[in-house]
Design goal:
- Chains A, B, C, D, E: It comes from Kuenenia stuttgartiensis.
- The structure is a homopentamer.
- By secondary structure, the first copy, chain A, is an alpha+beta fold.
- The first copy, chain A, folds into two domains: 276 residues, Beta Polymerase, domain 2 (2-Layer Sandwich); 59 residues, Up-down Bundle (Methane Monooxygenase Hydroxylase, Chain G, domain 1), CATH 1.20.58.
- Helix content of chain A is 53%, strand content 15%.
- Chain A has a seven-stranded mixed β-sheet, sandwiched between helices.
- In chain A, strand 6 and strand 7 form a beta hairpin.
- In chain A, helix 6 runs antiparallel to helix 8.
């Protein structure tokens, strides 16, 4: 629930652009890393103060400033001033409950989206918000905490592997997007395995616990949808070829991420249909079991009620009860009871109840 | 129900533009507050008579006239004449059952929308209708009753905090919109907590009462949707950049409200899915409980019916009933009964019914 | 059912434009009223023969011809010739099973729609078809029977109240549309009250009868939707500002009717969701009741089956049955029974079944 | 099932345009009828050989060639050559499992659609495929078997009734379309009556049979939808006014057929909702009945179990059983039993179970 | 499950365009076949090394290179270099979990789609990915393993049957698409038969097994949808006439494949509705059976409980029990019991329970 809707009410009444951190504080200290690279050189360093990054190097270099920790108002404000970012965006960066979106401010593009991880322990999806600012020759990324999501991208820049080092800031932004979307596949995979486990359980040993799991899965799928669905529009807008900050050679890559996003959304929808299907199966199997239980009851009652009645009849204390006098009365009655019981069993067998 | 559809039939047969107050009268006396401000000065006063406000001060000043109480036909008519508002709009202002909408009349823009509050006592959402008229250098707002929704905006104008004082009437209209939309977040949050409570109850102690709560929540969500959904279109239209009354610098703010609205609508849809999911869980748990109850019944019947039958057999009054004569007959029968009973219990345990 | 789909098969095989009255004949005799008015004068008269109306007065006057009764082929054909109406439209006018639509034939606009009334007795909605032909300076309206739906419009023209008398034929057409749409609000209100009644009944005394009412409401909502939904498109098309017969000053009024229609459609959708919700509640309460009933059964069986068994044991006729000989055997058994019974009751209380 | 998806696999691996008849052979011998008419003359004849029709008469005459029977490859190939039709269309004509569609090949327009009939015996809808080729001055129609669907059109041409004789090939194509769409109304009507019957049955004597009927109706509605839905797009495309083969005077007629199609689709959707509603009612009534049955069981058990227990107590063979010695013991016990039984009945009455 | 979402996580962290085979390795050794043909000549050969194919023959010849086996990175990289294909596409070719798509890179068009086969044994659908690259005068196709899907196309080229040999690479690409889509019809047909079997089973002998089959069918339909749905867009894009590589004469053929795809999607939706319908029927029949079982129980209990009670009454050991003394007491009681039993039976018959 908490992840589906965060506490934003403390913002009520504040002027637009007022900076307030919404969400959990996931990091003790803000950590800023700057990376400057061109086709030939590459410099990475951790910097204690954001002021050191600015002014940016010349146009030949691409600068990537990665900020881990977004709870410090002072810090964010400072960046805003140095990089000339609109106050509303600063507000969005600090609000971790933001819907994925993209906005184009001629000088820079602002993108906000989520990284997701599947928590194996409680089978829930954890989300972290990532904001990206893509300028002419720089990218500024904001993370809630240090994570490994961008590690491969850093590696590729440092090793000079692939084409990333030779290409500009727009390709870097794409590479970050791609890394995040790749992370979704991992979540989907684990989710898929979890769904498979539940399906298995559903067929072998369905219980109230299974129902709770299905309910949980449905909620996680809702959360997934809410986190990823808007991304489709975001990337589609970027892909339309009308943003001057994105070079034409980068479009083919954006289209690739777009395809991945569509694929992911398709899979989420499939998961959703599967979860609904599982609920139907669960309900059906509960009904089936009830049938089984009631059948047992009916069989027992149908066999023993008449027999008990007969026993009751011959247990009556009438003075004149002719059969009771007979020599073989007892055995005759036992035999009659045996026949009645057997007939019942045969009847139920014919009806396929046993 | 009342809130889902108000009594409009008294308007039937009246000419268009005929003024009739539809809704509850929430205030004894109309209260009018006027606020005139520019970047440097600010004057707020309560005025007894609407005529005092007009003619408006010169173009340097922004005038905000806030009218609390819309049940007085005379008053509304007067404002209509002074501010030159189309009679159909006056009709809309007095009809508190209006769907949120925006209309552009070159000279002014008319916006009608709802403020919502979550009533903790009966867990229902109360709505109040707000109408805004945005002119070149003035905003007229109509509220059903005095509320605190605009207090922070008033505060910011008086304190000169933020950029509101320096900007024109369009920014003021935005600030009012933003205050209202911010109020929705508070409602959503309380709604979310309520849903969380019900989910908790659903897992621990589901009862007919829980069902009633789920039903209630679903109805409130319907009401929320009906009240907020049209707002999306309203703000989207304003955001398209074709309204001459809205300066280009204000668009980025409108886009921000638009994002919030989309976010809210997303959350409402998520709530809806969750409510549906809760109903499914409820039904499943009712079925499960039925199964449990019937299992108990079946176990009891299956154990005691055969035993009672045996007791019945040896209660028959046959003259010749050999076992009855035996010395250990009674104990043999008791033992047989014990064995049968134990077998049943073992069988049910194996079937996982106990 | 009848109202959801009328018998049209008698038209099969006829050429297009062949005039056949489809629907119930609701009136014995056709009644034609003509009204000619300008800003200053107004003449209303009932005319026996449609020929008297034509040729129309000069352009200064607006003529409204209201025809009650559409079952007379001869009459309709005559009007068609006099007013130069396309035969296909005449066919549509006589076919009361027509879907609301608007068609623009440069010289005139043809509109067909439904008036609805809520029948309090059988809680059903009755529909009547209204066709309007709007020409340069005339409106011809066709009703199935005399009704009071247009009475307020007639009144306003005669009294010269409002702006209707000063404005042209397009405003008259709008006024008629508005009167019809206003009528929908009355139906919705009564429908809403009916739904409220059912909800009340659902919580207090749900029965098979309640189910039937819910089913009935759902059907009426289907009928409402089918009758009103297409109107949205009709008015939207008129509102687009491309019809030469509609003056620009009339658009603001059409937009108002459009808003009302959207509001009505919203409410119908809300009703639909509520009806679905009620069905869910009904089903849940049936399940709940079953649970209650089965609980009673299980409690009774679980208490008395063991007790009866014990009584049965001591009712056996064994020669040697030691307890039977005891002085206090009877009371000991009674006490044991009491303890078992009490234990059961305590157990069920703990399980919250009692 | 068969009608929802026909056996097309025999086409797999064949080149496009390979002629294979898919569907049932409904006619022994192909029958070709040719009709040539202008405003003044009309000639109808049955011709044994398709070659006789070509070359077509001059432009003054409209020629309609109606071919009943599409299973003869040779025949279809021949027509294809003579009328210069694309091989893919010939393939489509012979494949009776085709989706309704329209294709514009400058020289001619190709339309394929379905005629439907409601089979009263097994309450199923039978479909027949009709293909139309509309050229400058000719129409070629292909039917699976001889039917009466075009009889009224033929009659109107022969009688010279209506405007059909005076108008060209495009009007003829419209007239055929109109005849087919009129046939749908007949199917809908019978379907509606059938639904009404089931609703009646549902309220009076619901049974497993009723469920099967509902299932059947749902399937037929699926089939209806699949057959008619694409027609909407077909006629809409024709109606857009961009086909040179269709004269502008014919558009008003096409728009009329379009309205009918929309109306039919609306009704199908309504039927669908009604079928779903009926299923809900069925399920509810099954649940209700279960409740009734279980109530009876519970009442019986609750009354007789305690009584039987009491009887059992006094049936115990204890030596010392004081009540048994009493003079009025038996009557006292009988009375006690009577009181307990009556109390139970009163209790159930209060609970409204009886 | 596996087929609904494949293991892609091993790609996480790799740069875009990094080649990794995702999916099962279905073939031991890559097999490459090259086919060069013009209207007059045709040469087919299996080639051990991809380098032999390049450079391509002159423009007069159409070259089709068919590669079976996509798990060899080296091989795919080689082809990429020789045919100048974008690295991202090579990545897509090797990733068998790709969503069907089409991309236009001026020099060539890239298409990826699925061939499907219905596995009769476990009633599941197996998918194989096919990638096509269509250049000016060549087509390169990639298959996961050798299959018979393209055999008819090869045959037609070799025999010179049909128009394929005379037309260019675009027609060849169409022919391959058509062959794949034709394969879908076979799958649908078998699926349809399977659904029919389940429906049959549902009516005659519904069991938990039937439920599992329905669940399975629903999952297969989900898989079908996911595999085929995007194809609609793919072919639609190709059909729009804006691709320079596709000659205008080929469009009519593409439109034909498009029609088939729509038809297939329609059928999938119908299957989906049918599967949902079957689940409803299943649930209803389970409920019905429960009713039947409970009825039996109630009848038995209602008949024998009162009778057993009566027997119990006369089994009481009261000293003074007048009826027990009567000469005909026993028979009178038996008769009374008979009457009560018969009355019950008659009552149940009247209630239509028996």
């Amino acid at each position: 629930m908490h992840r589906l809707f965060k506490n934003r009410s403390k913002k009520t009444g504040l002027p637009p652009g007022a900076l307030i951190h919404i969400g959990e504080k996931k990091l003790a200290k803000v950590k800023i890393t700057a990376m400057e690279y061109s086709g030939t050189s590459c410099l990475e360093r951790e910097i204690p103060d954001i002021n050191e990054c600015f002014p940016l190097k010349n146009d030949q270099m691409t600068t990537w400033i990665n900020i881990c920790g977004i709870h410090s108002i002072e810090n964010i404000e400072n960046i805003g001033k140095l990089a000339n970012i609109h106050p509303l965006l600063l507000e969005d960066i600090m609000n971790t409950d933001h819907r994925p979106k993209m906005e184009d401010f001629e000088d820079y593009i602002f993108i906000v989206l989520k990284t997701l991880t599947f928590n194996e322990d409680d089978k829930r999806i954890d989300a972290e918000q990532i904001s990206l600012i893509l300028g002419q020759n720089y990218v500024i990324s904001f993370q809630e905490k240090e994570g490994s999501i961008f590690t491969p991208v850093i590696g590729r820049i440092k090793n000079g592997k692939g084409r990333i080092k030779k290409m500009g800031a727009d390709y870097l932004a794409y590479a970050l997007l791609d890394a995040i979307v790749d992370g979704y596949f991992v979540v989907l995979e684990k989710m898929g395995e979890y769904i498979e486990d539940i399906e298995e359980e559903l067929i072998t040993t369905p219980s109230m616990e299974t129902l709770r799991k299905i309910h949980n899965v449905k909620r996680e799928i809702l959360f997934l949808r809410k986190s990823i669905w808007p991304l489709r529009e975001v990337i589609n807008t970027m892909d339309k070829g009308e943003l001057p900050l994105i070079r034409s050679s980068t479009y083919v890559y954006l289209r690739d991420v777009y395809d991945h996003t569509i694929h992911i959304i398709d899979t989420i929808e499939t998961f959703r249909d599967m979860a609904t299907g599982m609920l139907d199966i669960y309900l059906s199997s509960v009904s089936n079991k009830l049938n089984e239980v009631v059948k047992v009851l009916t069989i027992i009652a149908t066999i023993f009620m008449p027999l008990t009645f007969i026993a009751g009849v011959y247990g009556m204390n009438f003075k004149y009860l002719p059969e009771a006098e007979w020599r073989w009365g007892y055995f005759a009655v036992l035999m009659a009871m045996g026949i009645i019981g057997t007939t019942m069993v045969v009847y139920f067998r014919k009806k396929r109840w046993i």
